[in-house]
Amino acid sequence: MAGFVSNYTNKLDAKGRVSIPAPFRSVLARDGFEGLYCFRSFNAPTVDAGGFQLLNVLESRLADFDPMTEEHEALAMTFYGASETLKIDGEGRVVFTDTIREHAGIDKEVVFVGLNYKFQIWNPVAYEEQRRANQQRALEVMRQAGGRRSGARAGGGGLSLTEMMGQRPAGPLGGDE
């Protein structure tokens, strides 16, 4: 897997800088994006972050909407107008803006959570609450999927994780990425 995986908790230093985990920096370096692209999550007190891989998913999702509609404008404003590109220093650190810190409730520590094509930046307490809720949801989805296996799938495998989670398997945001 070439994306962002696992989670890491790091402390902010006295100047408000935090080190992006080395495995995440490696993914960003392979991606070729200069800096760290960030925007406030739609549905949680977290910040979505990444590079070109994340931007490609967002652009693909945005392409599903006619550019002259309110829906397109709302998404474009969120994805681009309210986004920030943070500079990563030579030691792999970033300084979060006040907007990011306030939205995610960042104070002294942050949790970086890999989600393959992107990662999220969380307050540790909020992350633990969300992790527990997501673990419960995943368990429910797995139970609903039961022992079903789809013989029509290539290689005779069972349902994919996205199918079990009730998402369209075409892409991370439900588009045709």
UniProtKB/TrEMBL annotation:
<keyword id="KW-0677">Repeat</keyword>
<dbReference type="InterPro" id="IPR003444">
    <property type="entry name" value="MraZ"/>
</dbReference>
<feature type="domain" description="SpoVT-AbrB">
    <location>
        <begin position="83"/>
        <end position="126"/>
    </location>
</feature>
<dbReference type="GO" id="GO:2000143">
    <property type="term" value="P:negative regulation of DNA-templated transcription initiation"/>
</dbReference>
<keyword id="KW-0963">Cytoplasm</keyword>
<dbReference type="InterPro" id="IPR035644">
    <property type="entry name" value="MraZ_C"/>
</dbReference>
<comment type="similarity">
    <text>Belongs to the MraZ family.</text>
</comment>
<dbReference type="InterPro" id="IPR035642">
    <property type="entry name" value="MraZ_N"/>
</dbReference>
<dbReference type="InterPro" id="IPR007159">
    <property type="entry name" value="SpoVT-AbrB_dom"/>
</dbReference>
<feature type="domain" description="SpoVT-AbrB">
    <location>
        <begin position="7"/>
        <end position="54"/>
    </location>
</feature>
<keyword id="KW-0238">DNA-binding</keyword>
<dbReference type="InterPro" id="IPR038619">
    <property type="entry name" value="MraZ_sf"/>
</dbReference>
<comment type="subunit">
    <text>Forms oligomers.</text>
</comment>
<dbReference type="GO" id="GO:0009295">
    <property type="term" value="C:nucleoid"/>
</dbReference>
<feature type="region of interest" description="Disordered">
    <location>
        <begin position="143"/>
        <end position="177"/>
    </location>
</feature>
<dbReference type="GO" id="GO:0003700">
    <property type="term" value="F:DNA-binding transcription factor activity"/>
</dbReference>
<dbReference type="GO" id="GO:0005737">
    <property type="term" value="C:cytoplasm"/>
</dbReference>
<dbReference type="InterPro" id="IPR037914">
    <property type="entry name" value="SpoVT-AbrB_sf"/>
</dbReference>
<keyword id="KW-0804">Transcription</keyword>
<dbReference type="GO" id="GO:0000976">
    <property type="term" value="F:transcription cis-regulatory region binding"/>
</dbReference>
<dbReference type="Pfam" id="PF02381">
    <property type="entry name" value="MraZ"/>
</dbReference>
<keyword id="KW-0805">Transcription regulation</keyword>
<protein>
    <recommendedName>
        <fullName>Transcriptional regulator MraZ</fullName>
    </recommendedName>
</protein>
<dbReference type="InterPro" id="IPR020603">
    <property type="entry name" value="MraZ_dom"/>
</dbReference>
